[in-house]
């Protein structure tokens, strides 16, 4: 039992040293923050559905009533097909019941793509 307690204490003391965030504060008053991503981190928001229709990416996502397309960062990487990842940057703190989520749209122009460009969504589906 004593070994278990000792192991838990060591783990608690070491955990902050192993975090994936580095903050640097120089004497000049400059603050730099770097967040490192793990390779096994999820690629983005788990979405309900995604499709290309009428010249746009249409994605159905969870919502509490206030979710908008501007709440998401859309990453588009080069390749064939291009790879698109949706990451929520603003939480939806509303309290409405939206059991089917909401559909959000980004045109090819919004994505910086030519119409008809082959693309795939990297987000996990719910």
Helix tally equals 2
- Which sequence of strands runs across the widest sheet? 3-4-7
Structural class: mainly beta
Please state roughly what percent of the residues sit in beta strands, choosing from under 5%, 5-15%, 15-25%, 25-35%, 35-45% or over 45%: 25-35%
- Terminal Cα separation, in Å? 42 Å
Shape, per Cα inertia axes: elongated
Describe the structure.
- The longest helix has 13 residues, at 2-14.
- The strands form three sheets. This protein has a three-stranded antiparallel β-sheet. A three-stranded mixed β-sheet has the order 5-6-8, with no helix packed on it.
- The protein is 13% helix and 34% strand.
- The protein is mainly beta and 126 residues long.
Summarize the structure.
The chain is mostly beta strands and 126 residues long.
Give me some keywords for this one.
3-stranded mixed sheet; 126 residues; 13% helix; elongated; single chain; mainly beta
Topology diagram in text:
Layout (H helix, E strand, L loop, with lengths): L1 H13 L6 E5 L5 E5 L13 E5 L2 E6 L10 E6 L4 E7 L13 E6 H4 L7 E3 L5
Parallel strand pairs: 6-8
Antiparallel strand pairs: 1-2, 3-4, 4-7, 5-6
């Amino acid at each position: 039992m004593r070994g278990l307690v000792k192991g838990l204490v060591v783990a608690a003391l070491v955990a902050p040293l192993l975090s994936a965030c580095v903050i640097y504060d120089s004497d000049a008053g400059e603050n730099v923050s770097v967040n490192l991503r793990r390779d096994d981190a999820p690629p983005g928001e788990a979405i309900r559905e995604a499709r290309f229709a009428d010249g746009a990416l249409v994605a159905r996502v969870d919502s509490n009533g206030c979710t908008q397309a501007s709440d998401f960062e859309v990453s588009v990487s080069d390749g064939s097909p291009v790879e698109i990842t949706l990451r929520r940057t603003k939480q939806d703190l509303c309290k409405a019941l939206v059991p089917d989520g909401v559909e959000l749209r980004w045109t090819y122009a919004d994505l910086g793509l030519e119409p008809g460009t082959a693309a795939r969504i990297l987000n996990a589906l719910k």
